[in-house]
Amino acid sequence: MPEIDDIDHRVLRLLREDGRRTFSDMAGTIGLSVAAVKRRVDRLKEIGVITGFSVQIDYAKLGWGIEAFTELRYAGTTPVSEIVRTATDVAEVQAVFTIAGDPDALIHVRARDLGHLQQVIDHLRRAGNVTGTKTLLVLGSWTRDALTPRPPRIAGMK
Question: Most buried residue among 54, 64, 138, 145 by CB atoms closer than 10 A?
């Protein structure tokens, strides 16, 4: 496991806030030289901690206002590679998570409206060895910043 120090975490936190942030801006915030920040970012990319840079999109403003998670169940002999292929061949699928237990996979879907979502689910139900689905509509979302773990708030938990 690569050694990541507090300064690396600060660099990562700044990049998570704004992936287009300049080395100069980060250097001023962290208190390093521009060259030192660039070396750290290059190292984090080289060791695979930073895997890429991306943009965050408001899909509702693009007409894709429905977001859902669909559980997929498969026949017991279905290879994991087929489970992944079933979902990744569908343009509306944003992510595929193969999981242990029941269900076999959880997929993240975006659609224009409920009718479109129904078409996507119908398509998935007809694919391969799918034996069942359950769809959950997203009403809202929140994501914890993985770089700033917080202590548990429940008494007695460690």
Answer: 64
Cα 31 to Cα 115: distance, rounded to the nearest angstrom: 53
| Element housing 114 (H / E) | helix 114-125
Q: Which residues contact 137 (CB under 8 A, 6 or more apart)?
A: 66, 67, 68
pLDDT in tens, the chain (158 residues): 778 999 999 999 999 888 899 999 999 999 999 999 999 999 999 999 999 988 888 899 999 999 999 999 998 888 988 888 888 889 999 999 999 989 999 999 999 999 999 999 999 999 878 999 999 999 998 876 544 444 556 666 55
Helix (H) or strand (E) segment spanning residue 93? strand 93-98
Which CA distances in Å does 87 have to 10, 74, 126?
Answer: 36, 12, 11
HSE-CB for 41 with a 13 A CA cutoff: 23
